[in-house]
Amino acid sequence: MSTSTIPPIVVMGVSGSGKSTVGLDLAEELGASFIDGDDLHPPANKAKMAAGHPLDDDDRWPWLDAIGAVLATRDDQGYPPIVACSALKRVYRDRLRAAAPGTVFVHLHGSAELLSSRLGPRMHEYMPATLLGSQLDTLQPLDEDEEGVVVDIAPLPPEVTANAIAGLRTLLSSSA
Q1: Looking at domain 26-156+168-174, does it have CATH number 1.10.260.40?
Q2: CA 36 vs CA 79, 87, 115: distances in Å
């Protein structure tokens, strides 16, 4: 993929799906920068989640606007960033696409059991494993009219990344 063919990419999914790991690997493979959307949460959102309370839409809008602004940028080589962001609802993805037209999504998908097993031993600054259920309840998978690929997270991360790249290449070549 050349700089002109790489769109802004959001690696999406619930907590424990591997967004940061796969996002970093994708960025390295494609020569793009990686931004973890978690780093763009305001302190109030982090405190709310750390206390075990899920965010509501009013909490998310400013965060999504910050992510959209990042997605609309290009680096010195002309590459847009790859951003890890849960993007659980269609309306959130629509908002990101409004800020950065052409954004595509890599939805990392796995069973609730697999996700729970990954979250169990993991320590996250403000995202307790107890919020996984609310995220799964909120998740709206990509609709057929949304540009993106769904990637199974069961394999090891290098294979997940390879599958994401293969899916993106297929998607981008079919929409060219």
Answers
A1: no
A2: 16, 13, 19
The residue extents of the domains of the chain are 26-156+168-174
Phi-psi bin for 87: left (phi > 0), alpha (psi -120 to 50), beta?
A: left
CA atoms within 13 Å, Cβ hemisphere of 87 = 33
pTM of the predicted structure, to 2 decimals: 0.89
Is pLDDT of 79 > 80? yes
Q: What is the pLDDT of residues 83-98, one digit of tens each?
A: 999 999 999 999 999 9
C-alpha span between 63 and 42 (Å, rounded): 7
